[in-house]
Amino acid sequence: MRPGTLAKSAAAVLVTAAVGGVASRSSDSVWYAKLRKPSFQPPPQAFPIVWPILYADIAAVSASTIDHLQERQRDDDARAYQAALAVNLVLNGMWSWLFFKWRKPGAAAVGAAALTASSVDLTRRAVETRSGRAAPLALYPLWCAFATVLSTRIWWLNR
């Protein structure tokens, strides 16, 4: 993969992490502490471990996919992948705002479901292009699906 493509995808992912991180500062709030949470809620230490790994994976697989498409003169597919990545990263960053900043667990559950669908689509596009080399990206929609279940359950417990 080209260093320039990796730098661009890494920058996009870093911006997403920063935008989500600004809203997630509220995760230490009294409001969040008082929410009823399901028994399968991971410990708080899991999130700062899982997300950087997933973000690195998204950046690397996306850069590789985009370069592969461009090298084969599939520029329309490369642009479509970039658009799908942009939508995915907006949905990713938006979840923290919906849940932590705006305190809308129901909307956050819907947002998590949209993020899961978008992550499945992004992974499908990458695997179709890069086959096994893109397989690690499959962890991302799996985590997002878990986040959807978790968000939905938190919303349900606190209606």
TrEMBL record:
Signal peptide feature range: none
Pfam families registered for this protein in UniProt: TspO_MBR
GO cellular component: membrane
Membrane topology: Multi-pass membrane protein
Gene3D superfamilies referenced in this protein's UniProt entry, alphabetically: TspO/MBR protein
Domain of life from the UniProt record: Bacteria
Keywords on record: Membrane, Transmembrane, Transmembrane helix
Transmembrane segments annotated in the record for this chain: 135-156
Localization annotation: Membrane
Keyword Transmembrane helix: yes
GO biological process: tetrapyrrole metabolic process
Sequence similarity: Belongs to the TspO/BZRP family.
PANTHER family assigned to the protein according to its UniProt record, in alphabetical order: PERIPHERAL-TYPE BENZODIAZEPINE RECEPTOR, TRANSLOCATOR PROTEIN
Protein name according to UniProt: Tryptophan-rich sensory protein
The organism of origin for this protein: Mycolicibacterium agri
Taxonomic lineage: Bacteria, Bacillati, Actinomycetota, Actinomycetes, Mycobacteriales
